[in-house]
Amino acid sequence: MEKIKANLIEHVKSSFPEASATNHDGNRLDFTVKKECIPSILTNFKDILGYIHLSHITCVDWLEEGEFEMIYIVWSPEDKIKIFVRTRVERDNPVMPNIDMIWRQANTYEREFREMYGIQFTGLVGAEEFILEDWDGPPPMRRDFDTEKYAEETFFHRPGREDALDVREEIIKRSLEEIPDYAKKYSR
Amino acid sequence: MREKATTLYLGPQHPGITGNMMIRLKVEGDTIVGAQTEVGYLHRAFEKLQEKRNWLQSFTLMCRYCVPETDPMEESYARAVEEIEGREVPIRAKYIRVMVLELARLASFMLWYGGQNGSLGLYTMGQWSVGDRNYILDLFEELTGGRVYHMYIWPGGVRRDLPKGFEQKVLKTMDYLEKRLGDYDDLMFDNAIFKKRTQGVGLVDKATAIEHGVVGAVLRGCGIKSDIRIDDPYEVYDKLDFEVPTAEGGDIWARALVRRQEARQSIRIIRQVIADMPGGSVYNKVPNPQKWILPKGDAYVRTESVRGEIGLYLVSDGGNMPRRVHLRGAAYVHAVSLLEDVLVGENVADVSAIMNSLGTCPPEIER
Amino acid sequence: MIKMINDKNSQKIVDIIQNWSRKHSIWVLAYGTGCGAIEIPPTMTSRYDAERMGVRGAATPRQADVLLITGYLTTKTLKRVLRVYEQMQDPKYVIGFGSCTINGGMYYDSYNTIKVLDKYLPVDVYINGCMPRPEAVLAGFGKLQELIGEGKANGATKYKENLEWYRANQKKVIPTWKRPEYNW
Predict the structure, then answer these.
(1) Cβ-based contacts of A107 with chain B (< 8 Å)
(2) Potential cystine with C50: which of A15, A21, B292, C55 (Cβ 3.0-4.6 Å)?
(3) CB nearest to B48's CB, from A107, A132, A147
């Protein structure tokens, strides 16, 4: 396993000298590249090295650093290693290349990220609305969108009971009471 | 004389679709020439909600991702949290987890039986198999307290130990179900109408399978042998002895055969687990949930459910709430882009059977 | 019996017979709107047989009596549910299934689900639980039968009389409104 990983790191570094690799124990290997190299490195993995199964594409919002992080996870049935390909996009006007032509299923993931995060993919074809209908607010998965405030303002809520008790105080009061004899064998 | 194409809305309210989604079909006569799926009727924004709850509270939301089979979601969350923190799980808890997962597979398989046959008109199967599924749900109720949402597998082990006499009840149920599966075979697989309606329908060949990233029983029905329990083993699957069936053809008939063989293997796994189960504790206690902090890191775990591979990606930034939880179910891959390709050229009357066979479950798609 | 029919309360006898026959044949529309739809197949099949009470499935809204809202409703589904509800013919009833129809359940801070169902559709019976058991579903149908027998299940009349209030609430949640202003 370690020998296969070492060969992979060498192969990738010879074609993409700016990629950096991190090794984790088990069957996981990380690479970090710039966003323009994403189509070519994924084609390299799929056609030449035999990593034919696209397992997952995901996106994380790092609000403090002002960037989105996109992660592509591929898997090979022969080598049995998971490879994570990571890249970063700036948050203000995010534009990513499209990998629709390598795997057709990436179309679904990219439509969802366009709607939920506001990331533009160059040349993506597909209906604009995927999950939400008639949504006119900011992209909802960004960390600066407050969902509780939005829910308070738009929907009706059922008010609580007038004689509602505070749960924590009642639990403390009840734990200080005397346990009756018949219940002693059930208490901790 | 060419006919013009009309648009049919196979809408959210329809007795033939599984769940709540819509397909827009372009039809010429009786043949489909184009299809477009529309999802989003069940979107609850799980990922946004889980960023506001701490590690143990967001575990209660995990089982509601997909309703027919709820245990693989809990198990993948528990394993991801344990991988980030480096927490050890006692060996007895691992065996119990495998037993619960295989029982959930059998229950979901029974529900699939009713759905697949009901879409072809064989309503008797639904009455038999959903009625027998209640015996498995009785076992779950005795073990965990609930029929559908268990909340039993959590980070650190399982919630409580097996009650007295539980193993004998499980073995008795397995004997009964094995006999009943033989009865179902006579009704379904020896049926000439079922064979005629399912052979050659809903074809998925190997090139399409790789391009769309297809997983699970659909991939095994094309002749490719791949199963997460053998390729990337988790819990104690590397110590158990079972086979992975495949079939050639790629149509509905092949997938039904694969699922039927898998049910037999599930019963075999449960019997082995009960025979080999060690003693010991079942829970490695976590600290106070209000103050439980995980180190920085991320994890990606995969589980095999009845429909295919479920992948969960979890990120922690050093606080007591998760940063990002992203679960990709098997229906996300099958029901949006693959369904649109498979439906072209088929008959309108077969849409429901194809949807059931690919394993469409809309809550998993839009979470 | 003839003395009773010639009485001034003959209208009441007709109502009694009509309600008795309606309550023993309730047809449920085949629409699974949320998570609760997983406990409907066990209720309708062999162990907890609901067909002995006269409850069976109906395929289209024109043939159904009861709309079973199983669980939470998103705004996208609410638009379709309203259309289906207004296509159903009198007498019709609505059953709210699960805790999410009462106060929002565990999705209380989600931006896409509605929290209180009563403001958008008139509800006759609530069934509590997350997930309600099949015995609870049968008890809910029993309560609906009781209400029909006494003539008190009149959610449809309430909807017709207060149509402007319901419409105002619905428009607040659904921004692009293409529904007609009248009731079908």
Answers:
(1) 337
(2) C55
(3) A147
